[in-house]
Amino acid sequence: MYLRFLKSELFRASKHKCVYILILVLAAVLFLESIVFLKFSIPGMSQDDVYSMGQEGYSAEGMSESFNMGFNAGRAVSPVVHDEEEDMSEEDIPAYTLSDFWGEGLFYNDDFPTLYWLNVSSSFHLFAVAVFTALFLGSTYKYGYDKNLIVGNRYRFSLFFARITVIAIYSAILLIATFLMTVVYDLLFTGSVDWNLDSSVLGYSLVSFVLSFAFSMIAVFIATLTKNTAASMTVSIMLSMGFLSLGLSIISFVMTYIFPSLPSDFQLVNYTITQNAEALSLQSTGKEVLRALIVAVVYSFLSIEGSLLIIRRRDIG
């Protein structure tokens, strides 16, 4: 029965316009990101700034790092005179032209794995899977698919697992699309692709998929709990944008102030899906990868169990 449900749900998913629209939006977002990374150059900004901001992820420190990076870049472009009585001569003010901003960007000469990491770590695929999950599951409550598909209670879980399989497949498709689009845009903006592929790229892709699947299971739980497309989509999108991670980062800061005995590196944000997805890189240590996998497994298990509990107690009629 599971395979029949899977075939049915795959067909139903293929009829959702959001499946294709989200991929087109992904292509547009990656196009803009590729312009920023490959063609756009901001005086005062370096690769180290980007790496540092990426490692901080959605935390408060990451927000501060992003602000400082923008502030320093702004100062480089438009120097500020601190002494009102001291006037700068025209020779002291840098004369920037279009060629200073457009040409070879920060990552123009970097290899493909680096560009792929930059695109995946932006985590737009989490946003896309959140929208897809809300619409895909929301339609079952809106149009009553459950009543038509489930003959008896013993088939209820088979249908659920068929649906999360479809969502997992779409998560994989989004990552594959990111890989292919990175290739296309690298060729478009640099004229060649420095592949430099090794096992770290495969490992990074697999861990990213596990994190994406875990996040989609959270979205499934929210959709199953609320039975409302708008509510589940709103909450899932907010989670994908790191609002929870930012909140936990602020709470961690307050806790370390109240309880000085806590370790200096104490961060609740390190145990969220979005933070691990954002901070994960090709150079992540074994400890960081293990933490990401453990977090993903725990969230997946709790979300699936929670969804099954709700389904078990809910009257389909």
Roughly how much helix do the residues carry, as a percent range?
over 70%
What separation lies between the terminal Cα atoms?
Answer: 21 Å
Low-confidence stretches: 66-71, 80-85
Order of helices and strands: HHHHHHHHHHHHHH
Provide a count of the helices: 14
SS class: mainly alpha
Which shape, going by the Cα principal axes? globular
How much β-strand is present in the residues? under 5%
Task: Provide mean pLDDT, rounded.
Answer: 82
Structural commentary:
The protein has 317 residues and is an all-alpha fold. Helix content is 72%, strand content 0%. It has 14 helices and no strands. The protein has helices at 2-14, 17-39, 47-56, 60-77, 98-101, 112-121, 124-143, 145-149, 156-190, 199-226, 229-240, 243-258, 273-279, 286-313. The longest helix is centred in the middle third of the chain and has 35 residues, at 156-190. The radius of gyration is 23 Å and the shape is globular. The two termini are 21 Å apart. Mean pLDDT is 82; it is low at 66-71 and 80-85.
TL;DR of this structure?
By secondary structure, the chain is an all-alpha fold. It contains 14 helices and no strands.
How would you describe this structure in keywords?
single chain, 0% strand, mainly alpha, 317 residues
Fold topology:
Blueprint: H1 2-14, H2 17-39, H3 47-56, H4 60-77, H5 98-101, H6 112-121, H7 124-143, H8 145-149, H9 156-190, H10 199-226, H11 229-240, H12 243-258, H13 273-279, H14 286-313
Helix pairs in contact: 1-9, 2-7, 2-9, 3-4, 6-9, 7-9, 7-10, 7-11, 9-10, 10-11, 10-13, 10-14
